[in-house]
């Protein structure tokens, strides 16, 4: 608790114990999440605002998002030329005839797609979510991180219901917590974070299955999917990949040594 109080004071009040800071400390002691109280969270080199109470970005997601950014930045799709040595983003923008098309599915705060846009100047990202409030959150985070409006779109979509295009990259951090493991979830998460962004049915695979069933239809040639999941779901996800006709994938562990994401090609 002392560390969280110190973090709150430093990040929101510049170290000063103001009357409002005291009120926030009281909320913190009652269980309100420190990230919601501060109002934003760093995510790689981006600032992710949380005022609409989306799912709080996790460091495990940040871990694979960094790898995804590296992948996108060296992609070799039509219109996505390889990096000539010594050429910076400005010159690269001028010579590229097309953007790399990306989809941030289950976007929430938009942290994944915003990070891609911030670090890959020739990427375009569509953000999809079934919650209008979170789409407003995405637009706000794009503005905070100085992302031009022409470089992204927000789409109200129940998984792929509102999606029409094809994408070079699809990033998905779906609700994957198993209802059967609800008792193991932290109290603050259950009480404050959006359940619709957390739970994926009894085994946590409801939305992962629906996503994988449809996502191939929206992948461009040589397209890539990044999919986050819970470590115990790895075997079942592999069965789903085979069931839905995927041929190439690889599973990766997070920074804590737990199976956390798949790259599907």
From TrEMBL:
InterPro entries with a match to the protein in the record: DNA_methylase_N6_adenine_CS, HemK-like, N5-glutamine_MTase, SAM-dependent_MTases_sf, Small_mtfrase_dom
Domain Methyltransferase small: 101-192
A molecular-function term among this protein's GO annotations: nucleic acid binding
Top-level lineage group: Bacteria
Keywords assigned: Methyltransferase, S-adenosyl-L-methionine, Transferase
Signal peptide: none
SUPFAM superfamilies membership: S-adenosyl-L-methionine-dependent methyltransferases
Gene3D superfamilies: Vaccinia Virus protein VP39 (3.40.50.150)
One GO term of the biological process aspect: methylation
Cross-referenced Pfam families: MTS
Coiled-coil parts of chain: none
Catalytic activity: L-glutaminyl-[peptide chain release factor] + S-adenosyl-L-methionine = N(5)-methyl-L-glutaminyl-[peptide chain release factor] + S-adenosyl-L-homocysteine + H(+)
Enzyme Commission number(s) of this protein: 2.1.1.297
Name recorded for this polypeptide: peptide chain release factor N(5)-glutamine methyltransferase
